[in-house]
Design goal:
Layout (H helix, E strand, L loop, with lengths): L22 E3 L7 E4 L3 E7 L8 H11 L8 E6 L3 E7 L4 E2 L3 H4 L2 H16 L12 H13 L17 H10 L7 E4 L8 E4 L2 E5 L6 E4 H15 L5 H9 L5 H11 L3
Antiparallel strand pairs: 1-2, 2-3, 3-5, 4-5, 6-8, 7-10, 8-9
Helix pairs in contact: 3-6, 3-7, 4-5, 6-8
Keywords: Antibiotic resistance, ATP-binding, Kinase, Magnesium, Metal-binding, Nucleotide-binding, Transferase
GO biological process, one term: response to antibiotic
Family: Belongs to the aminoglycoside phosphotransferase family.
């Protein structure tokens, strides 16, 4: 589909998504086709393997997170025989990875740390979504067996390894305990929308749920390194709370994300 053609808006969305000028959003690696207007965001995604997040998963997580942390409101969800569609409000602001945001690296590192600390402070007993290791390792195994892992995208330290190699390593070195909190699931800078001094919204939350806090911290630290620079990783972790950070678990959950 060309950018000029605009998205296919299902007729069922005609009331909630009035005619608008749409532009494609190319940032992110969710696998969904994303379009935005001045007020709305529309995601379109083919039905996928059950080991991969669906837009229905994201809808349910957005609904639960709404009112607890800043997330876009859900306007509608629809699925046909080939695709699913999720319409949400557009969050005002820019992603933390935007060039205008990365000019203020110290501020972004601090805002990200505080946003994650706030999310992780939600009462875990209230969260209905589970992404702890029994679940995440099972899903990782299913993705490996289905050939869904892009080995070319591995971090430099794992280049040359196969997905099976990484899975075996994860199983062999699995932590005995988990520091379980409510996690974002894909805590990278593009998924945190900022405006001025505030985080206005968390987006792409299809993998949110109960997991070890290091599942978020590992991805966030890697994203800070890539987008802001390695010098800001330690300030990010210090602001979050260095006493809560286990360096070995950062490595483990970074490896687990290779199979996501």
């Amino acid at each position: 589909m060309s950018a000029s053609a605009g998205p296919h808006v299902p007729p069922v969305f005609s009331r909630i998504l009035p005619a608008a000028r749409w532009e494609p959003v190319t940032l992110g690696e969710s696998g969904a086709e994303v379009w935005r207007s001045t007020r709305h965001v529309l995601k379109i995604q083919p039905h996928r393997h059950p080991a991969l997040p669906s837009l229905a998963d994201e809808r349910e997580r957005l609904r639960w997170l709404r009112g607890r942390v800043p997330v876009p409101g859900v306007l509608g969800y629809f699925a046909d025989s080939t695709h699913e569609y999720l319409a949400t409000e557009r969050v005002p602001g820019i992603p933390m990875s935007h060039p205008d945001a990365t000019l203020h690296a110290e501020r972004m590192a601090g805002l990200l740390a505080r946003a994650l600390r706030g999310l992780h402070s939600l009462p875990a007993r209230d969260c209905p979504f589970t992404m702890t290791l029994p679940v995440s390792l099972r899903l990782a195994r299913e993705r490996v067996e289905a050939g869904l892992v892009d080995e070319s995208g591995f971090d430099p330290q794992r280049q040359g390894q196969s997905a099976v190699d990484v899975l075996v390593e994860l199983v062999h070195h699995r932590p005995q305990t988990e520091d379980v909190v409510v996690t974002h699931g894909d805590a990278c800078l593009p998924n945190f929308i900022v405006q001025g001094e505030y985080v206005e919204g968390l987006v792409d939350v299809g993998r949110a749920g109960l997991a070890d806090r290091h599942a978020d911290l590992a991805l966030a630290a890697r994203s800070v390194r890539r987008n802001l620079g390695v010098k800001w990783v330690d300030p990010f972790l210090d602001t979050y709370g260095r006493e809560l950070v286990d360096e070995s678990r950062l490595d483990y959950y970074a490896a687990l994300d290779e199979l996501a």
